[in-house]
Amino acid sequence: MKDKPKVGRPLNFQNVGEMVEAMNRYFEETPELELTITGLGLAIGLDRGQIITYAGKPEFSHAVKIAKQIIENDYEKGLRKNGRAGDIFGLKNFNWKDKIDVENSGTIAYEH
To answer: Per the confidence metrics, is the pTM higher than 0.90?
Structure first.
């Protein structure tokens, strides 16, 4: 069986250890309440789409999830500390919602 030819650009990180090391540098050098996904991407040489691509690779998935959770936590702390609309927007990008979904079941009886 022939090996498939490699298509596309080579990965920036050949193993998860390299990626985690680069991510940790970003987290150590960036002040609290200033962490962002795009900032992480710029620091480690990836765009947002590439970060998503790495998240889909089993060996990198956990590291990307933890990095995103660290950033999500930073937004959450900012919201608690400052109550800024930007933090709310950031958290919505992590699937937070500020609405309540109400589901009704049953019937309404009208009396005459």
So the answer is: no
35 burial via Cβ count (<10 Å: 0-12, 13-18, 19+): buried
* Stronger pLDDT, 30 or 112, i.e. the higher one: 30
Has residue 81 got a pLDDT over 70? yes
Residue whose token pair is 């309540």: 100
Tokens of 2: 């022939």
Quote the tokens at residue 90. 């950031």
CA distances from 20 to 11, 24, 58, 66, 76 (A): 14, 6, 14, 10, 22
CB-based contact 26:39 (threshold 8 Å): yes
Contact partners, residue 100, CB within 8 Å, separation at least 6: none
If one counts every other C-beta atom within 10 angstroms of the C-beta of residue 39, the result is 13
